[in-house]
């Protein structure tokens, strides 16, 4: 049994390398690529300050209830159970990344953040790079789509960090339809960086954020989510860019209040989302991506 599981993990870790030759020249915009939502949230630090993007009500809640409040928050903020290496081994190739500075941090370190702070950005990027070094034909999409508390010099620091870690592995921004596995393999590119900030216009290896749009259904209703996904796919294919189908149910304030001690996984992911999709036409298409990493993204 252990041997069989090891073979499956190897297959997922190198799934791009093992695709049929007929797919190698197809634009990546035409392929369904599994991704994860708030990809870094496997490690959210309950001892960290509350993120600067959080509303005053949340800040006040934490100031009153302290550690207990943060433990409850983590149950709703953590959308992943695997680190970057685990996700890559499971086949994930798109990463949803949100970057923040910490209040009153004298060294201006950059962190992944979702309500609370997660790992340092350089540590996560180096972990991804280590996988790419061992799997030369695998390609990842790094989507830096939210920035909190960042000034110009923070962006400069992040850009330099990307240069230092990935170097020539990064594919410069070109027409999306030109990007195929064959093209990337021939040039030894393994990383496409999407950057939702005007800074992207100044750096050749940063793809502008509009090349990776991510419409958001913003619903707790699986039926409405399916309708939203089905309605948007055809229209977005015409735009000639990459795009994201967010297979994500978003809890409302009332949802959190009712299940405050249960958390996101038990209240939505397991009970509602997975059970529904496994019994629907859309689910047969998306279920693999949902079971790889809960609350996933899918680039189509």
Structure description:
The chain has 300 residues and is an alpha/beta fold. It is 41% helix and 15% strand. It has helices spanning 2-13, 56-77, 84-89, 121-134, 152-166, 181-187, 222-237, 253-258, 264-277, 281-292; strands spanning 33-36, 94-101, 110-114, 116-120, 140-148, 191-195, 206-208, 244-246, 296-299. This is Phosphatidylinositol specific phospholipase C X domain containing 3.
Outline the secondary-structure elements:
Layout: H1 2-13, E1 33-36, H2 56-77, H3 84-89, E2 94-101, E3 110-114, E4 116-120, H4 121-134, E5 140-148, H5 152-166, H6 181-187, E6 191-195, E7 206-208, H7 222-237, E8 244-246, H8 253-258, H9 264-277, H10 281-292, E9 296-299
Parallel strand pairs: 1-2, 2-5, 5-6, 6-7
Antiparallel strand pairs: 1-9, 2-3, 3-4, 8-9
Protein name: Phosphatidylinositol specific phospholipase C X domain containing 3
What gross morphology would you assign? globular
Structural class: alpha/beta
User: Helix count?
Assistant: 10
Please give the largest β-sheet: 9 strands, mixed
Instruction: Give start-end ranges of low-pLDDT stretches.
Output: 1-5, 273-296
Order of helices and strands: HEHHEEEHEHHEEHEHHHE
In short:
The chain is an alpha/beta fold and 300 residues long. The protein contains ten helices and nine strands.
């Amino acid at each position: 049994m252990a041997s069989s599981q090891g073979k499956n993990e190897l297959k997922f870790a190198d799934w791009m390398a093992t695709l049929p030759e007929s797919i190698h020249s197809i634009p990546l915009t035409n392929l369904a690529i599994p991704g994860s939502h708030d990809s870094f949230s496997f490690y959210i630090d309950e001892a960290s300050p509350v993120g600067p993007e959080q509303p005053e009500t949340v800040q006040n809640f934490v100031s009153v209830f302290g550690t207990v409040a943060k433990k409850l928050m983590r149950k709703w903020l953590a959308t992943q159970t695997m680190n970057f290496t685990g996700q890559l081994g499971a086949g994930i190739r798109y990463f949803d990344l949100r970057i923040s500075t910490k209040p009153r941090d004298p060294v201006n370190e950059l962190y992944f953040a979702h309500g609370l702070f997660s790992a340092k950005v350089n540590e996560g990027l180096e972990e991804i790079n280590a996988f790419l070094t061992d799997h030369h034909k695998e390609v990842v999409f790094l989507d830096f789509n939210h920035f909190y508390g960042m000034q110009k010099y923070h962006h400069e620091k992040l850009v330099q960090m990307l240069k230092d870690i990935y170097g020539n592995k990064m594919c410069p921004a070109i027409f999306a339809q030109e990007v195929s596995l064959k093209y990337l393999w021939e040039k030894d590119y393994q990383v496409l960086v999407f950057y939702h900030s005007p800074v992207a216009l100044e750096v050749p290896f940063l793809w502008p954020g509009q090349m990776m749009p991510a419409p958001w259904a913003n619903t707790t209703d699986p039926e409405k989510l399916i309708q939203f996904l089905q309605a948007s796919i055809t229209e977005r294919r015409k735009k000639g860019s990459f795009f994201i189908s967010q297979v994500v149910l978003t809890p409302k304030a009332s949802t959190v209040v009712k299940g405050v001690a249960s958390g996101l996984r038990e209240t939505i992911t397991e009970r509602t989302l997975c059970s529904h999709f496994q019994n629907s036409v859309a689910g047969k298409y998306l279920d693999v991506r949902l079971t790889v990493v809960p609350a996933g993204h899918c680039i189509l």
